[in-house]
């Protein structure tokens, strides 16, 4: 292995270690679930009467408009709605949502949704190898998503990518005339319009401005 490759791997290891240490330093969040947005997003009310939006870590459920989206939302509601939960902090996403593993008593809700076939393992972010085993078992048993015809079993991240591709012509309409240039900007706060953000996402591959992979960058200006 070359020196450069060893350095890259060392940096990646240190970055992962720092993320793990940061997550371990965050206290668990306790509260009652008061709202369900979709199959992997909910809102809870803490004892201090603060509302916290939670994105379940390492899993991804069908988006609104996809087959099984409403049933995935119902599955999450059945497990957590109006129940006291504990959230083990993993990260905070670019929308300010707390990303975490959710527990009702000893039940790991994230894992249970995968076991029921109500959620996919989110390949991009999953670190818990046991989730893949649960997904394989759900697929073999044809539970939930896996009971659908194969043509309807599109992973949510692929579905969002399809939406992004559909939005691409908007960005390509007149980039030169608008003066857009790849590499000139890297953050949503630098974008002057939704068209410019779409150009940087679709033409330049600036994935960081589409943090939830839904094909729509910089939601504050692309609503």
Characterize the structure shown.
With 223 residues, this protein is an alpha+beta fold. It folds into 2 domains: 22-152, Beta Barrel (OB fold (Dihydrolipoamide Acetyltransferase, E2P)), CATH 2.40.50; 156-209, no CATH class. 38% of the residues lie in helices and 19% in strands. The chain is globular.
User: What coarse outline follows from CA principal-axis ratios?
Assistant: globular
The helix/strand order is HEEEEHEEEHEHHHH
What's the domain count?
A: 2
Radius of gyration, rounded? Answer: 19 Å
Span of the ends, CA to CA: 47 Å
Under CATH, the topology of the largest domain is which?
OB fold (Dihydrolipoamide Acetyltransferase, E2P)
Total of DSSP H or I helical runs spanning 4+ residues: 7
Can you lay out the helices and strands and say which pair or pack?
Elements: H1 3-24, E1 29-38, E2 41-45, E3 51-56, E4 59-60, H2 69-80, E5 84-92, E6 98-104, E7 107-108, H3 109-116, E8 120-121, H4 130-141, H5 156-172, H6 175-178, H7 194-202
Parallel strand pairs: 3-6
Antiparallel strand pairs: 1-2, 1-5, 2-3, 4-8, 5-6, 6-7
Key terms:
223 residues, alpha+beta, single chain, globular, two-stranded antiparallel ribbon
Summarize the structure.
With 223 residues, this protein is of the alpha+beta class.
